[in-house]
Design goal:
6-stranded mixed sheet, 10% strand
């Protein structure tokens, strides 16, 4: 069944794993649209730093997502890890248990912690919860070009943003107290009237929209929001929300996560 107009707002976030959670980062960009208005850039709260911080985005998102306005949020980093990781480390096949376990070993939501601090053994316990750059999720393979969530120190990496961003998904989930649907972990279908947070890969769509005067980070955030708005308007979003996976891949994706828009 084609469903049009399931959401009233669309938020695209281009993420960055640089520096600390309270660092003002040019690579953190947010664009928001509604049904009638194309995406515009959302600036940090007045009086705060010039650019967004990871903590600032998490706190702002929590406020937005607890409003009674169905909102679709697309964030550009991995939401989970390959099944191989769960097997190697004995992590329960449960997404929220994974969030708790990961944050315990990778406390990258601490105000003064760099991802590289954990990688280098300054804090946390990376050796007990690390992966291999050759391990890839099914959705990364299907996306053609998406890098492994463990592939650090290369151009276009998603590893650092993923390792810095996952603890903030936990934060939003806890603070929103069940009012947010994390796709596909909470189910493949978007529940009516509820806000949804999904993993996205802006390279899928960024060339479909004119660049205009936006830099790369701004355009990625813009493209996320613009594509979600467009797909919701023309009814394709409901199709992308429930991709035609076989039973084995579907069960795997319910643990590994899935990139919205990958079929």
């Amino acid at each position: 069944m084609i469903v049009r107009g399931a959401f009233e707002r669309y938020i695209g976030i281009d993420y960055s794993g640089a520096e600390t959670p309270i660092a003002s980062l040019k690579g953190l960009r947010v664009h928001m649209a509604d049904r009638d208005t194309p995406p515009v850039e959302v600036q940090p709260p007045a009086g705060s730093k010039k650019y967004w911080t990871r903590r600032g985005i998490a706190e702002w998102l929590t406020e937005v997502l607890t409003e009674d306005i169905p909102t679709l949020v697309g964030i550009d980093h991995g939401f989970s890890f390959p099944l191989r990781y769960f097997a190697e480390h004995g992590v329960p096949l449960d997404w929220r248990a994974f969030l708790e376990d990961f944050q315990h070993h990778w406390p990258t939501d601490d105000d003064h912690t760099y991802v590289d601090f954990v990688r280098g053994g300054v804090c946390g316990n990376a050796p007990a919860r690390s992966g291999n750059a050759k391990w890839r999720r099914v959705t990364e393979i299907r996306a053609r070009g998406a890098k492994s969530v463990f592939h650090f120190d290369v151009q276009g990496q998603v590893a650092k943003s993923t390792h810095s961003g996952i603890p903030w998904l936990r934060y939003i989930d806890l603070k929103a107290a069940g009012r947010v649907h994390f796709w596909p972990f909470d189910g493949w279908y978007f529940p009516a009237g509820k806000s949804v947070v999904a993993e996205v890969y802006p390279a899928l769509w960024s060339r479909s929209f004119p660049r205009e005067n936006r830099d790369g980070h701004q355009h990625d955030a813009y493209s996320i929001a613009a594509w979600m708005r467009q797909a919701d308007s023309n009814g394709l979003l409901s199709t992308f929300a429930n991709p035609p996976l076989d039973e084995a891949d579907r069960r795997t994706a319910e643990i590994e996560g899935w990139i919205l828009g990958v079929m």
